Amino acid sequence: MNSIRKSKLIKLVTFFYFINALIEVIAEVYSNNSIIYITKPLIPLLLMVLYFYTTKKNYTLFYVLLFFSLVTNLLFISDSQESLFYGIISYTIHRVFLLILIFKLVKIKDYIPLFLAALPLGFIFFYLFITIEVPDNSYYLIFFNNLFAVLVGGIAISSYVMKDNKRNSILLISVLLFLGLQLVVYVEKYYLPQAHSTLLRPLAMSLNFLAFYAFYKFVIASEKVKQL
Q1: Contact 140, 101 (CB under 8 A)
Q2: Beta carbons within 8 Å of 45's beta carbon, 6+ residues apart
Q3: What average pLDDT is seen over the chain?
């Protein structure tokens, strides 16, 4: 495939990615599950296609974490406790691969800035953890996800502060969106479990598709840095 056709294809897939995400957010507003079951899994699938045609490295880890994002998205559609439990498991596995890929792309040379950046995030997330009624079967999974949030947030903030470049800026944006998503899910699932989520679910999905798109851009930017 020549570069012009490839560029046009990338733009087309990007267009469909955002159109599909917009439809998904609107479907969440109206709680239309028949549309949600189509549009929600398409978000990671379209991003896989976009990455396939954009990347030069083809990191398998990126496809794996998007696959678990797809599974998580499907499991979180239902409000049942069983679906929530398996969704948290899939979400945790996804976070493990996300963390591994970040460590692969970002070389940590000094852990003191990371610790200082992670400290305030630790107070926020673990305060939320001790103030909610966590189901016994999800206790350690949610604890791990909090730990993940603190660690990844610390990496993104410290990398940006130590070296303000395009790649670290995109990583920071992506991670802040991921952290915002986790906070919204906390509120929806544990603080307002009986409330009609006409605002929270569309907000969560907006953060979700923006966070993953920003992370995709971070991976591509990291590949270009490694080629220099």
Answers
A1: no
A2: 66, 70
A3: 86
